[in-house]
């Protein structure tokens, strides 16, 4: 499945009728904002009494989603996730495309980019909130990951809930990457991945967490390494060595040799 393959008929069948109806209202009333398209992900903000940051990704032909609303936290497919998808189906051209945006921004000088960010912050209140949050974001995100892992250690059966919480940290890392903080985003991805592998090593269960989640985290981690023009190679080398020291089965899931070759270039 690709986002381009979604249509009205598909969306009508994936959500509860009430949630679908509310999602359509939110779209028609223009409450879906700041749509952003990555390779396998849609991000956006849905205003519904308060702003909800929403993320949807495609994994193995299935949709995985994140929203901060109570319904989503309870595991339901909420109206905000559906609204983001309906907005995409209705007008995909309204979503900023990451690849196209990167190419466009490369044409600007550093001074021009600063002016663009300031202009966006002046126009969009949620952008101001994100900028304030990210000034102190990295340590807070890492601490939140530690809390999630501590909670999991007390209840090892809560794998699905733990993965859901980790994806929220992943979305915050993506926002850091969007603002140009690739090193911080990479650090978060590494920290999540290393924490997952550490728990699998501790419990002696190499398949404790989803292989798809581990593969996805590693691929994004490698992508940040590839894109970072100011890469701290020694630090990344230490991270790779840390991953290598984990559970023996790690090498079967992660292509550590490939990223080591890239670091050597």
Comma- or semicolon-separated keywords:
265 residues, 5-stranded mixed sheet, 14 helices
Describe, in plain words, how this protein is organized in 3D.
With 265 residues, this protein is α+β, with helices and mostly antiparallel strands. It folds into 2 domains: 97 residues, no CATH class; 157 residues, no CATH class. It has 14 helices and 5 strands. It has a 5-stranded mixed sheet with strand order 4-3-2-1-5. Strand 3 and strand 4 form a beta hairpin. The radius of gyration is 19 Å and the shape is globular.
Terminal CA distance reads 35 Å
Q: How does the helix and strand content classify structurally?
A: alpha+beta
Helix content: 55-70%
* Strand content bin: 5-15%
Biggest sheet, spatial arrangement of strands: 4-3-2-1-5
Rg, nearest Å: 19 Å
The mean pLDDT is: 84
For the biggest sheet, the summary is:
5 strands, mixed
Helix and strand string, N-terminal first? HHEEEEHHEHHHHHHHHHH
Shape descriptor: globular
Task: List the SSEs and their pairings.
Elements: H1 8-14, H2 17-28, E1 32-37, E2 41-47, E3 51-59, E4 62-67, H3 70-73, H4 79-90, E5 96-97, H5 98-105, H6 110-123, H7 125-135, H8 137-154, H9 159-178, H10 182-203, H11 211-227, H12 233-244, H13 250-253, H14 256-264
Parallel strand pairs: 1-5
Antiparallel strand pairs: 1-2, 2-3, 3-4
Helix pairs in contact: 2-4, 6-7, 8-9, 8-10, 9-10, 10-11, 12-14
């Amino acid at each position: 499945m690709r986002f381009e393959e979604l249509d009205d008929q598909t969306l009508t069948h994936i959500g509860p009728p009430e949630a679908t109806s509310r999602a359509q209202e939110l779209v028609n009333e223009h409450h879906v904002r700041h749509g952003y398209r990555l390779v396998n992900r849609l991000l956006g903000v849905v205003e519904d009494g308060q702003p909800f940051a929403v993320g949807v990704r495609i994994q193995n032909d299935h949709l995985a989603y994140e929203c901060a609303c109570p319904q989503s936290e309870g595991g339901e497919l909420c109206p905000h996730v559906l609204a983001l998808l309906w907005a995409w189906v209705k007008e995909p051209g309204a979503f900023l495309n990451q690849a196209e945006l990167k190419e466009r921004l490369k044409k600007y000088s550093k001074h021009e980019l600063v002016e663009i960010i300031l202009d966006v912050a002046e126009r969009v209140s949620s952008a101001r909130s994100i900028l304030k949050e990210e000034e102190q974001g990295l340590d807070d995100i890492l601490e939140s990951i530690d809390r999630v892992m501590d909670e999991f250690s007390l209840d090892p059966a809560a794998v699905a809930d733990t993965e859901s919480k980790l994806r929220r940290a992943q979305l915050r890392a993506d926002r850091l990457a969007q603002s140009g903080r690739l090193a911080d985003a990479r650090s978060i991805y590494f920290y999540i991945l290393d924490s997952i592998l550490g728990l699998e090593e501790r419990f002696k269960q190499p398949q404790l967490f989803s292989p798809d989640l581990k593969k996805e985290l590693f691929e994004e981690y490698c992508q940040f390494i590839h894109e970072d023009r100011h890469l701290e190679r020694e630090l990344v080398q230490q991270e790779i060595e840390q991953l290598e020291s984990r559970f023996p089965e790690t090498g079967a899931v992660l292509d550590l040799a490939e990223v080591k070759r890239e670091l050597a270039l």
